[in-house]
Amino acid sequence: MSQRHLKHVTHLYEKIICKQKQQKQQKQQEEKEEEEEQYQCWFCCSEENLKFINCKKGGIQNIPFGKWGECCKDKAICLKCRKRMREKCPFCEKHALYNWKKAGRGPKKKEPFAIRHEKQTERLLKRLKKKQKYNYLTPREYRRLKRIKTMENI
Predict the structure, then answer these.
(1) pLDDT of 78-116, one tens digit each?
(2) Is residue 133 part of a domain?
(3) Is 57 exposed, middle or buried (0-12, 13-18, 19+ CB in 10 A)?
(4) pTM for this predicted structure
């Protein structure tokens, strides 16, 4: 049988069920309600001012979400308990209970040309002066050094 024949012959299909969109939306809302969990402090069972201990990151985070979110879902801690145990983690005792910060990030925006040019000339001047001290300057470097010095004087 050709595809066209199957497409237009409806008596081959016994029952056709069409669901309304509202039913799907209701099911999704019910699933979301089920997923929401009430977190409690691991030690005193209070539900106020909670943060989550993340031993993989080595600190505390505000919400149990993200790359290592699964490892901290069961380790909620309130403000009072956090103050008592600030210096050592009660689970692994390898890190302190301070907020985890992203480290190693530099400035995002490129500096203006004038500032970059000044830094570049300072580095160059430093290198050329060191070479001049030991008489290793080529004629081109010598002229360049002279030009930079005259620009500084102006």
Answers:
(1) 888 888 888 888 888 888 888 876 655 666 788 899 999
(2) yes
(3) middle
(4) 0.44
